[in-house]
């Protein structure tokens, strides 16, 4: 038997890196994972109760057991159109909305539709690895433009111009961003739009972290896009803390009929006919979920994410060799820079992550997973006591490993010894966390029974 090379080539770059780390933790210490991009991993962040109730009602009604329209139920599309219409633009109609299996499928539709053979798509670096996986899967080439680490991870516009050519089919942007936590200002978005207009590129806007910012407001790029067509994608996954519900969407924002005339809408409709979209009961519940006034709940969630980010920044500031170049302003991650001259024994992010796991049983994702070598990514969706224990261990690891000065360990701050008891009362990290950043924390043989019994 042969395997389609487009599939075997389309591996998620995180996968092989993480597979290399599996099972390498120090058996004497509980594993603490700061790696998985699944906000439900520790159980302390929960969706709004009313959202859960809406889903339960949809199932209990017995009215949503059949197929619905392949681009999404009329009510669900209409609700997404209402909540995603932008100021100073014609309102979206439900025909502008396609309901998808998570944000991932929405991204896949965008790339499949725009990237004709021979075309290339411009992707952010650092960025979410699914983008390249999808391009590979569909035999489309991709090029990276850079984000500026010292300037809030804004887009380096010059680098976009550099990699652009006549075959470029789209510019993909991610705001708020994974892994950088960047939140773009209105001015920066306007600059991006102006550039897209000059280069005559449509924008694919991954806005799955819409609304998840720590002060600076989230601005949908469509709001300032003018005549530049925008395919904006989102989902319930992150903002509502329910990635497992698999409800996402793709909204087409266009003034004029460029996308319509080129058949993009018809083509997306066809793509929707393949998977037939997310489950009907979830679609039935979505209008109620989107209409909730959950601002108090959201503020509370964001406060936790923000305080985890601030706590990490405080700890990083005390650790020689580590630095945060631009603090996150949204989403659920912090990128920490590792000074390779300070860690001569583990001069790459890959080695740093490996040694940290081997010695301290703390799992972080090497930046290389996101094309950000020299950084590691930690998540902010971790309860404070766990985060504290993790940073104590990172601190003692760095004190041992940092070769920049001869200052060796201050053990008074290390709670590695207490780590066990501190963590004993906390919910254990699930042994398998899925998603594109899925991490197998134990050998598959040990996970199998647990997974199957779900
Ligand atoms: C998590 C994530 C997605 C995927 O979202 P799903 O709704 O789970 O498919 C897409 N883009 C980014 C940047 C993400 O972090």
Verbal overview:
- GO terms for molecular function: L-tyrosine-2-oxoglutarate transaminase activity; pyridoxal phosphate binding.
- The modification N6-(pyridoxal phosphate)lysine is found at residue 238.
- Residues 29-393 form the Aminotransferase class I/classII large domain.
- Belongs to the class-I pyridoxal-phosphate-dependent aminotransferase family.
- This is Tyrosine aminotransferase.
- Strand 6 (168-174), helix 8 and strand 7 (203-206) form a beta-alpha-beta unit.
- With 454 residues, this protein is an alpha/beta fold.
- The chain has helices at 5-9, 13-21, 49-61, 74-84, 102-114, 130-137, 157-163, 186-199, 258-261, 264-275, 280-291, 295-318, 349-360, 384-401, 419-424, 444-452, and strands at residues 32-33, 97-101, 120-125, 141-148, 154-155, 168-174, 203-206, 230-235, 247-253, 322-323, 333-338, 362-363, 365-366, 375-379, 432-433, 439-440.
- Helix 4 packs parallel to helix 11 and helix 5 (102-114) crosses helix 6.
- An eight-stranded mixed sheet has the order 2-9-8-7-6-3-4-5, sandwiched between helices. It has a four-stranded antiparallel sheet with strand order 10-11-14-13.
- The protein contains 16 helices and 16 strands.
- The protein folds into two domains: 5-45 and 295-452, Aspartate Aminotransferase, domain 1 (Alpha-Beta Complex), CATH 3.90.1150; 49-291, Aspartate Aminotransferase, domain 2 (3-Layer(aba) Sandwich).
- 47% of the residues are buried.
- Pyridoxal-5'-phosphate (PLP) binds at residues 37, 102-104, 128, 174, 178, 206, 208, 235, 237-238, 243, 248.
